[in-house]
Design brief:
Elements lengths: L30 E7 L3 H12 L6 E5 L11 E3 L8 H5 L5 E4 L1 E4 L2 E3 L3 H7 L5 E5 L8 E2 L14 E7 L5 E2 L5 E2 L1 H8 L6 E2 L1 H9 L13 E7 L5 H12 L5 E6 L4 E4 L2
Parallel strand pairs: 1-7, 1-9, 2-4, 2-7, 3-4, 8-11, 9-13, 13-14
Antiparallel strand pairs: 5-6, 10-12, 14-15
Helix pairs in contact: 5-6
């Protein structure tokens, strides 16, 4: 287990990010963790992958949407036919990071949901991104965004705390026009905690992409810079949802539950 030095002893846990994951439902032998939302999904995937390999020999990292490479983990491509032998790759590398094929510089197609499901038996743990947000902390989901597959054991819903109390036209929301229409707001509307809570807990918002059967975890990122706001958002979400809720900093590798 990887231990991290907390950036502030008064507000952090010196614990692994693996501890934000509830136990796997009985009868399901392997973890399959989906990441959805914005404001740190890719960084969280790398962090979880780095920690999972300390206890697992076969950790798969991938995406079912467009994604990019990382400087830390070699990228492998499945190609359009999806023929790749993970078992052989795991003999020399762990984790394995897979995407489908290159679109342009630093941008690749994700694998299909069918490909992802076919790879699951060969991995002890699978972590994958579900949607894109163009590095923005909040988004509107379109009809073409993939739905979290029902074979996922968990989904971590990521929100960037830097969106709290900004205005819609401040550039912190992915798909601004769709977001404006979906929630019937104006360009100068403040993206406050009640609105964000609604977006991430409502069946019209983020939950439209998540089956009821998948365990949900909320993580508010960038709390190193927006600690009070992140804590307040976590508390607000907890009043609506009984799921596990955390806030912290993926970059500084710490997290905390609401108090």
């Amino acid at each position: 287990m990887v231990n991290f030095i907390p950036c502030n002893q008064l507000m952090t846990h010196s614990q692994s990010f693996l501890n934000i994951l509830p136990k796997v439902p009985q009868g399901i032998p392997k973890l399959c963790v989906a990441l959805l939302g914005g404001g740190g999904k890719t960084s969280l995937m790398y962090q979880l992958g780095k920690e999972f390999v300390t206890e697992n020999n076969h950790v798969l990292m991938t995406s079912i949407t467009k994604a990019g490479p990382t400087n830390n983990i070699p990228l492998h491509l499945t190609g359009s036919n999806g023929e790749i032998f993970l078992t052989q790759m795991f003999k020399s590398q762990n984790p394995v990071y897979l995407l489908r094929e290159r679109i342009k510089d630093n941008k690749y197609k994700g694998i299909s949901i069918a490909q992802l499901e076919s790879f699951l038996p060969e991995a002890d743990v699978t972590i994958f991104e579900c949607d894109g947000s163009r590095n923005l902390p909040l988004k509107a989901h379109s009809h073409w965004d993939p739905v979290v597959p029902d074979f996922a054991t968990h989904v971590i819903i990521v929100i960037g705390a830097d969106v709290i109390n900004t205005k819609l036209n401040d550039g912190k929301v992915h798909r601004l026009k769709l977001f404006k229409s979906l929630w019937d707001i104006q360009d100068d509307t403040v993206i406050d905690i009640p609105l964000i809570t609604k977006v991430v807990t409502d069946k019209q918002g983020y939950l439209s992409k998540i089956p009821d059967s998948v365990q949900k975890i909320y993580f508010i990122n960038k709390a190193d810079k927006f600690h009070k706001a992140a804590n307040a958002l976590a508390t607000s979400i907890a009043k609506v949802r009984s799921d596990s809720i955390f806030f912290g900093s993926i970059h500084q590798a710490w997290w905390k539950t609401i108090s």
